[in-house]
């Protein structure tokens, strides 16, 4: 339902919000990139008042190979994945994004996951565009694909499914069909095309091919990719003020005099650095507050040694005070 150009949910979006909040509540660390993608897609669909005048309409951003090639309309290339034609379309894609995004971001780290999403978006759109043009040139498939209008995040989701299932050796259930996990995206492509009318076959196929291409490029490149390095550098600049404030509070806890009259003395925890994103975490945490990477055994041993040393030092101080005043 729409009011003044803005949409009003019919009840599915609140259910999506409850499910997303429940999933994030039970996680030890909260994947920020996945949450950002969920919020971005939802806000673009709802078009609240503060965004309504800024966002182009869906008629201006439909993915259409003919219009992109003829007019060089890049906003159709980059913005169409974030637009959805209906509430059920949005909710289905966002539920899939929530499940895939949490798993990939928790295992890869936020910076690398963001880099992957950008790469998959560009590659899936580009491959779909080339497929439509090739079918026109070599097979004269003009009306079927070249003039087709499409929108939605499903192309990127198919690419993410390929990446997620690339190392799995088990089997999975795809709409009632048991298939090897690494072929789940292909099975879903065929089943959706058979039973769901109006879906973009080329968009989904482009996503699968983009996922395969991403894995090939990743396997042939050692070390972090340039895009991940750039994202980490940019986020590091924005996180610097937060780290500075946190460091002030940490110094206050370490240099404070503590409490008097308690039965136990609270020792300020040491700081350990995450091996994945280099974020400095409190010693009380077992996973990185920034990227969710588990704490290594060496960090745990270092913290325990530091904690034990602090306890012994305090006991020595107490003993000397007793000897002095006795």
Automatic annotation (TrEMBL):
InterPro entries linked: Peptidase_S54_rhomboid_dom (IPR022764), Rhomboid-like_sf (IPR035952), Znf_RanBP2 (IPR001876), Znf_RanBP2_sf (IPR036443)
Residue stretches spanning the membrane: 113-139, 145-164, 185-215
Topology term for the membrane: Multi-pass membrane protein
RanBP2-type domain span: 268-297
Keywords recorded for this protein, A-Z: Hydrolase, Membrane, Metal-binding, Protease, Transmembrane, Transmembrane helix, Zinc, Zinc-finger
Superkingdom of source: Eukaryota
Transcription recorded as keyword: no
Subcellular location: Membrane
Similarity-based family: Belongs to the peptidase S54 family.
Protein name: RanBP2-type domain-containing protein
Species of provenance: Xanthoceras sorbifolium
């Amino acid at each position: 339902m729409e009011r003044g150009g803005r949409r009003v949910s019919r009840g599915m979006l609140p259910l999506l919000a409850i499910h997303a909040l429940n999933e994030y509540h039970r996680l030890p660390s909260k994947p920020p990139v996945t949450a950002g993608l969920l919020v971005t897609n939802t806000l673009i669909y709802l078009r609240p008042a503060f965004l309504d005048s800024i966002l182009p309409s869906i008629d201006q951003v439909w993915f259409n190979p003919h219009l992109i090639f003829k007019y060089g309309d890049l906003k159709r290339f980059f913005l169409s994945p974030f637009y959805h034609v209906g509430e059920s379309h949005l909710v289905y894609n966002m539920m899939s994004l929530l499940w895939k995004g949490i798993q990939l971001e928790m295992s890869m780290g936020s910076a690398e996951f963001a880099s992957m999403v950008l790469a998959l978006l560009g590659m899936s759109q580009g491959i779909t565009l080339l497929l439509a043009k090739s079918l026109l040139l070599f097979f004269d498939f003009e009306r079927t694909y070249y003039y087709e209008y499409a929108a939605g995040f499903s192309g990127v989701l198919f690419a993410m499914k390929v990446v997620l299932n690339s190392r799995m050796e088990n089997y999975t259930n795809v709409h009632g069909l048991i298939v090897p996990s690494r072929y789940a995206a292909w099975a879903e492509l065929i089943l959706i095309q058979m039973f769901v009318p109006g879906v973009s076959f080329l968009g989904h196929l482009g996503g699968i091919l983009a996922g395969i291409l991403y894995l090939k490029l990743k396997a042939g490149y050692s070390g972090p990719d340039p895009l991940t390095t750039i994202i980490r550098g940019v986020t590091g600049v924005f996180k610097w003020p937060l780290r500075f404030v946190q460091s002030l509070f940490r110094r206050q806890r370490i240099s404070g005099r503590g409490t008097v009259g308690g039965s136990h003395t609270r020792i300020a925890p040491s700081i350990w650095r995450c091996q994945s994103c280099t974020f400095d975490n409190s010693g009380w945490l077992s996973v990185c507050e920034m990227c969710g990477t588990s704490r290594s055994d060496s960090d745990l041993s270092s913290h325990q040694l530091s904690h034990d040393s602090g306890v012994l030092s305090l006991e020595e101080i107490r003993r000397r005070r007793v000897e002095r005043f006795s």
